[in-house]
Amino acid sequence: MKVDILREKLYRASLLAGKVITTKSNLPILSNIALIANENGELILIASDLEVSVRLTLNAKVTEPGKITVPARKFIEYLASLNLEKVSLEVDQKQIEVISGDTRAKFVTMPIDEFPVLPETVSLEKKLLIERDRFKDAIKQVVFAAARNDAHPVLSGVLFEFEGSNKMNMVSTDSFRLSYRQLQVDTNIKDPLIIPARALTEIEQFISEASNFTEDVPSDVILSLSEGDNQLFFKYANIEVIARLLEAEFPNYKRVIPEEFSSTVNVNRLEFIQAIKRTSIFAAREGQAIKLEFSASNGEIKSSAQSVDVGSHSSVVRADIEGKDMTLGFNSKFILEGLESFKDDVIRIEIKDNTAPVKLSGAKNPDYIHIVMPMSLNSEG
After folding, report:
1. Could you tell me the pTM of the whole model?
2. Which of 55, 170, 260, 305 could be cross-linked to 240 through a Cys-Cys bond (beta carbons 3.0 to 4.6 Å apart)?
3. CA atoms of 367 and 342, how far apart (whole Å)
4. How far apart are CA 27 and CA 69, in angstroms?
5. How far is Cα 282 from Cα 235, in angstroms, rounded to an integer?
């Protein structure tokens, strides 16, 4: 294999591909990036952890086609250290040489026949078309609420639920909070899908980075399903992601979304976020609740926390409150991430009581809501 390519382009592509590589795998080959140079003047980079795989195609000057794999972490680190505009890649037996001016490095490789073979994404019948920027925003609003552990694998995914051929609901929950976003789409998929949140995070980053690899950046994103409906294919510009779908039944999220409320609060989002951030410093124990007191008569929200190790704090934010006075406890991380997922200047908070799920919404995007469960308030002693 002999290839000449722009260093920055190769570095950025390698860095993106490397994001799907996990250190937990028992297969050494999965710590490598596959490099495939073909006769069409393309250098293809592939990385995989068997659950999520990525394939990036770059334009290059290919003098000799070939295939090899290279250790991802050190290869990326070395590319970042180079200064010249172009690099050359040359394979000699079991090593790949990276040449940049007078600088040369050789990496020990592994044969590509040990690397997972990825299916092709052509001629797939079940497809989903989504406007790019709306999809990016939706991913950011749902992935953070998915579970981050393996206790309930289905909760580590995001539900894609379809209403006819033009509406889709994206839902995530870790059982303590829930995000719901509805999108306008064009699809012939009918059955619900559960896509790993990690795969969607990678997809969002790839969409954002696509302009670094090609000038032809589409305004729409295409998602497709494999013939057995067990794999998702994402294709955008010259980037492809293949993810194994989670095969399980998603919880009935609709019963968690409250419909009756005793109090409605409208508050400046940024002011409320700053007050909670200050208060959370004094919730010393991990998972300790901060106290939020909603006073309709005073038109204010008081946030407070105390700890024998740190001290105590309280902040007051003005708010428009209708209904009963309420006192609730919240995990500060959960309420903060919920508030930060909105772009609205003013957030509406709807409360039934101090134990029922609390609903957050904004006027700018009525198709997005976030639900967070309150916590019991125990004294820190």
Report:
1. 0.90
2. 55
3. 11
4. 14
5. 46
Q: pLDDT tens digits for 41-74? A: 999 999 999 889 999 999 999 999 999 999 999 9
Our measurement of the distance from residue 14's CA atom to the centroid of its chain's CA atoms, rounded to an integer in Å, reads 19
Provide the 3-class DSSP secondary structure of residue 309. coil
Token pair recorded at residue 47: 């990385």
Helices 72-81 and 7-18, axial angle in degrees (round to 10): 150
3-class SS at 42? strand
Structural contact between residues 73 and 18, judged by C-beta atoms closer than 8 angstroms: yes
Which domains does the chain show, CATH number per domain? 2-114 (3.10.150.10), 127-253 (3.10.150.10), 258-372 (3.10.150.10)
Give the separation between CA 66 and CA 112, rounded to whole angstroms. 10
Q: What is the rounded radius of gyration, in angstroms, for the C-alpha atoms of the chain?
A: 25
φ/ψ (deg, to 5) at 49: -120, 20
Inter-residue contact 50 to 118 (CB < 8 Å): no
d(CA 267, CA 319): 5
Q: Output the pLDDT for position 245.
A: 95
Determine the 3-state secondary structure of 188 from DSSP.
coil
Supply the pLDDT for residue 94.
86
How many angstroms separate the CA atoms of 186 and 69, rounded?
Answer: 38
In degrees, rounded to 5, the angle at the alpha carbon of residue 246 between the alpha carbons of residues 242 and 252 is: 135
In the predicted model, residues of the chain with pLDDT beneath 50 are 379-381
Q: Answer whether 82's CB lies under 8 Å from 7's CB.
A: yes
pLDDT, residue 137, reads 95
Do the beta carbons of residue 154 and residue 243 sit within 8 Å?
Answer: no
The whole-number pLDDT of residue 122 equals 56
**Per-residue model confidence as pLDDT tens digits over 246-267:** 999 999 999 999 999 999 999 9
